[in-house]
């Protein structure tokens, strides 16, 4: 029935809302049943399953017929899943704080808002919290489409006894915010080094005489400006709202496609989904000509796609490097497993950092 009056349309919406609400509660009761079944059978108490979560989101997008976009439908389903998962067991997630950071946004995009998100002061603290079991998972930034890698995260991954079990791609839009109301009153700008780099051209053109100060995170910059009233911060619009700051300029990033990739770290390897990514770290035998080529050649020979290659000092000796590689596929895939075994035999150091579902939204 297509309504012809506003009253009819609202009545139909109310009726549909009642049905939708009933179905969501029915789904929640099934989540409670899953919890009870696992308790009775002694199954693993970790109710979050990255492979299953990705499957549900992809199915929701495949079923979608509009007019809502696939991304909007996936976000709605994510929040329903988050609320239902919280009925099974509250999920704790550590992130780079304080409140108002892009990392916190990445937490909610991946896990939904029904998680217990715990702010940490530094990336190494996130790794320690997850490793010790104080939190179930952690979210850390790893690279930006403009600013490149987050070196602290790569260095921690090389030594941590943890696995990457998911990824989040977050479009990032920077805003200049302050207690003052005019942009010409800004004399110093606080932000994370990556954000300053991502806005370099805009800052040079708009505030060439303002000094720049690096802080631990965008959220910390906004919090500092709010508490002291000194300078301006580059941070998210959510941070401006959280800390009561005036937005002096919006979308000041030099590239409108600016995107940050975040990793979900946990203590278990994710199951294959058919649309996975594997992250590796390895090093070549020092002083051996063509050693890096020998480590990369098996990927090409097997037709395995490399999506990322980075190098970082190994900290074992001067001019010795670790190489970080992302490939398409899961480490247990029949095509990939023998290739990894071959590289492991050739490398001086070799670790699978994780196999995990590719970002869905």
Automatic annotation (TrEMBL):
Gene3D superfamilies reported for this sequence = 3.30.70.260, Chorismate mutase, Periplasmic binding protein-like II
Q: According to its record, what are the GO cellular component terms?
A: cytoplasm
Recorded superkingdom: Bacteria
* Catalytic function, reaction form: chorismate = prephenate; prephenate + H(+) = 3-phenylpyruvate + CO2 + H2O
Which Pfam families does UniProt cross-reference here? Answer: ACT (PF01842), CM_2 (PF01817), PDT (PF00800)
Q: Where in the cell is it found?
A: Cytoplasm
The keyword Nucleotidyltransferase is assigned to this record: no
Q: Which parts of the sequence are marked as the site Essential for prephenate dehydratase activity?
A: 260
Q: CDD domains, alphabetically? A: ACT_CM-PDT (cd04905), PBP2_PDT_1 (cd13630)
Q: What does this protein do?
A: Catalyzes the Claisen rearrangement of chorismate to prephenate and the decarboxylation/dehydration of prephenate to phenylpyruvate.
Q: What is this protein called?
A: Bifunctional chorismate mutase/prephenate dehydratase
Which organism is the protein's source? Answer: Hydrocarboniphaga daqingensis
Q: What is the lineage of its organism?
A: Bacteria, Pseudomonadati, Pseudomonadota, Gammaproteobacteria, Nevskiales
């Amino acid at each position: 029935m297509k309504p012809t009056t506003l009253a009819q349309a609202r009545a139909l919406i109310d009726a549909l809302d009642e049905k939708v609400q009933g179905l969501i509660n029915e789904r929640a009761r099934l989540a409670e049943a899953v919890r009870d079944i696992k308790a009775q059978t002694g199954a693993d108490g970790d109710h979050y399953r990255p492979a299953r979560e990705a499957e549900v989101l992809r199915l929701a997008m495949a079923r979608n017929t509009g007019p809502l976009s696939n991304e909007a439908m996936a976000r709605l389903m994510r929040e329903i899943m988050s609320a239902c998962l919280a009925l099974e067991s509250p999920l704790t997630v550590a992130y780079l704080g304080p409140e108002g950071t892009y990392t916190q946004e990445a937490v909610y995009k991946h896990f939904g808002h029904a998680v217990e998100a715990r702010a940490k002061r530094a990336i190494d603290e996130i790794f320690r919290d997850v490793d010790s079991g104080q939190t179930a998972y952690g979210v850390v930034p790893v690279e930006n489409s403009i600013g490149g890698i987050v070196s602290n995260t790569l260095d921690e991954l090389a030594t941590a006894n943890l696995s990457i079990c998911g990824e989040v791609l977050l479009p990032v839009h920077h805003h200049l915010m302050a207690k003052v109301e005019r942009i010409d009153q800004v004399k110093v700008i606080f932000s994370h080094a990556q954000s300053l780099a991502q806005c370099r051209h805009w800052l040079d053109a708009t505030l060439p005489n303002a000094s720049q100060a690096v802080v631990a995170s965008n959220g910390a910059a906004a919090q500092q400006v709010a508490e002291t009233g000194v300078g301006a911060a580059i941070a998210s619009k959510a941070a401006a709202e959280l800390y009561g700051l005036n937005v002096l300029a919006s979308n000041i990033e030099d590239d409108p496609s600016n995107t940050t990739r975040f990793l979900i770290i946990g203590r278990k390897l994710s199951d294959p989904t058919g649309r996975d990514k594997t992250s590796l770290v390895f090093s070549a035998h020092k002083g051996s000509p063509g050693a890096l080529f020998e480590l990369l050649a098996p990927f090409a020979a097997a037709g395995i796609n490399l999506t990322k290659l980075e190098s970082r000092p190994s900290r074992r000796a001067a001019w010795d490097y670790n190489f970080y590689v992302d490939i398409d596929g899961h480490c247990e895939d029949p095509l990939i497993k023998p290739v990894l075994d071959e590289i492991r035999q050739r490398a001086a150091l070799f670790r699978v950092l994780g196999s995990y579902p590719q970002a869905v939204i």
